[in-house]
């Protein structure tokens, strides 16, 4: 059983707190190659040579306006030609962690998103307090219902450099917002005074897995180098809720034969599983409309 940085079993910590910090999911040798690959893709995204990127001024997809980049999308896209990202995404200890967190068997895992969060160059940028799958204006009644929907997946940030950009409200992932939290998310969403907020401080190589419905925000600081791998995996039980969260990022490029050919053996079944999810939810293309 894998444990977190406080020696708590990771599944228990994630369930209880809505987030869990884990060490050692990247071998030192791989760390060097991941950093080099990140430098290359960041340069391409900033130069406009890679069009799948998150742009300052916009929080959720689609990212169509702006020039300063805060994230690079689709690191495992075959046209980026950086196999080291797939090598890590399919690595044994990472897959083992995901299996433990989801209580899933390896053959039931589903390949999903793999992006990169970086420091902008021109100006600092704050993301608002949010839950990924529940818009701020959602009524309390609807929020209760949405929070009951199981995720059948997990997402994580893995820091290649020190990273203290993410803030969370521990244990907020399964309950309706308090009146004060609701007011902040709607009327003062960049507040630095959310009750109970905690700054997540990651050392290089550390990973935070978090429930995507935990109340969270992030502060992007132009002066501090950030290259944090931001990825997710699910299980075959996901269904249409998971499909809408994942495919809103536009994954139709995964249908290219060159993508399938680039996969390490450990990701062949997770790839077959994500294709099956798209087919089962009746999507011709692996693309859906934005949630927010
Ligand atoms: O920058 C981060 O660490 C969090 C990003 C985030 O919340 C999101 O992309 O929805
Ligand atoms: Fe988020």
TrEMBL record:
Pfam families recorded: PhyH
Gene3D superfamilies found in the cross-reference section: q2cbj1_9rhob like domain (2.60.120.620)
Protein name stated in the entry: Phytanoyl-CoA dioxygenase
């Amino acid at each position: 059983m894998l444990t977190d940085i406080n020696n708590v079993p990771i599944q228990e910590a994630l369930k209880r707190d809505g987030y869990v910090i884990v060490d050692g999911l990247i071998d030192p040798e791989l760390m060097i190659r991941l950093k080099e690959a990140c430098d290359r893709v960041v340069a391409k995204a900033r130069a406009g040579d890679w069009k799948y990127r998150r742009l300052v001024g916009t929080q959720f997809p689609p990212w169509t306006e702006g020039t300063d980049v805060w994230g690079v999308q689709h690191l495992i896209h075959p046209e980026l030609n950086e196999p080291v990202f797939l090598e890590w995404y399919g690595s044994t200890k990472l897959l083992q962690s995901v299996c433990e967190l989801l209580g899933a068997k390896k053959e039931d895992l589903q390949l999903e998103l793999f992006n990169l969060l970086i420091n902008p160059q021109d100006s600092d940028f704050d993301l608002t307090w949010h839950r990924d799958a529940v818009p701020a204006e959602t009524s309390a009644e609807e929020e209760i219902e949405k929070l009951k929907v199981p995720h059948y997946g997990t997402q994580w940030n893995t820091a290649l450099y020190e990273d203290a950009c993410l803030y969370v409200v521990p244990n907020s992932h399964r309950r309706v917002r308090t009146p004060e939290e609701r007011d902040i998310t709607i009327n003062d969403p960049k507040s630095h005074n959310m009750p109970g907020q905690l700054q997540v401080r990651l050392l290089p190589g550390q990973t935070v897995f978090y429930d995507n419905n935990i109340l969270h925000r992030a502060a992007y600081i132009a002066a501090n180098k950030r290259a944090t791998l931001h990825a997710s995996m699910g299980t075959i039980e996901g269904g249409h809720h998971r499909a809408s969260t994942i495919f809103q990022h536009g994954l139709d490029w995964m249908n290219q034969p060159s993508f399938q050919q680039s996969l390490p053996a450990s990701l062949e079944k997770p790839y077959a599983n994500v294709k099956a999810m798209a087919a089962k939810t009746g999507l011709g293309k692996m693309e859906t409309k934005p949630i927010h």
